[in-house]
Design a protein that fits this description.
This protein is an all-alpha fold. The protein has two domains: about 5-20 and about 135-220, Endonuclease Iii, domain 2 (Orthogonal Bundle); about 30-130, Endonuclease III, domain 1. It has helices spanning about 5-15, 30-40, 45-60, 60-65, 70-75, 85-100, 110-115, 120-130, 140-150, 155-165, 175-185, 200-205, 205-220. The longest helix is centred in the middle third of the chain and has 19 residues, at about 85-100.
Length: about 220
């Protein structure tokens, strides 16, 4: 089966499984979304959603957030991974939004990625979810599944993004980003996954990939 044919079948399955696509991170404004996505690195969405209510109560806007001390921001997000670094980035990012963008969130990759703590994936999520601009942010779930499904060689996230953009229609990128994440969490875990029983891997994965995953699972279980 060619990649585009496989991608079309996968897209149809994901649309049936996830016709409604909730945004995982709680927020009321593009600024709050940016902060929440920044904090989600190496941390679960659930944990981020636990700490943002108080953070956004005290720093709902770039102006209010910039007025807070780094130590105070850190104290509110201390349960989040890499809290000291993220607290510094949140304060400096807020200051730069005021200095460079009149407190508004920019809507280009270049301007977003020029902010501290904002990488390509974070910028893509903000563009997709806050502005509806087509992007295909690649997280660990999507990177892993794209390789399992034979849609990408899986060498790096940059290549995975290019490969997925080539096989899926542009108007579906933003939905697929979330649908694949939800599918990965529900059906397609990283460890001890039986590809032969997965709703998509069972037919999309190559025989070579299924053999590799089975071998890795045996090694993990033997440790």
């Amino acid at each position: 089966m060619k990649r585009k044919e496989k991608a079309e079948r996968i897209q149809n399955m994901l649309e049936e499984l996830y016709p409604e696509i909730p945004i995982p991170l709680d927020h009321d404004t593009p600024f709050q979304l940016l902060i929440a996505v920044l904090m989600s690195a190496q941390t679960t969405d659930m944990k981020v959603n636990q700490v943002t209510p108080e953070l956004f109560k005290q720093g709902p806007t770039p102006e209010k957030m910039a007025s807070l001390e780094v130590a105070h921001i850190q104290s509110m997000i201390r349960e989040v991974g890499l809290a000291p670094t993220k607290a510094k980035n949140i304060k400096r990012l807020s200051e730069l939004l005021l200095e460079r963008h009149d407190g508004e969130i920019p809507n280009t990759f270049e301007e977003l990625e020029d902010l501290p703590g904002v990488g390509h994936k974070t910028a893509g999520v903000v563009l997709a979810q806050a502005f509806g601009i087509p992007a295909f942010p690649i997280d660990t779930h999507i990177h892993r599944l794209a390789a399992r499904w034979g849609l990408s060689n899986g060498r790096n996230v940059e290549q995975t993004e290019k490969d997925l953009k080539a096989v899926f229609p542009k108007n579906a990128w933003n939905d697929l980003h979330l649908q694949i994440i939800f599918f990965g969490r529900e059906y397609c875990p990283a460890r001890y996954h039986d590809l032969s029983q997965c709703p998509i891997c069972s037919w999309a994965a190559t025989k070579k990939r299924m053999a590799e995953e089975a071998r890795m699972n045996r090694k993990k279980k033997s440790k």
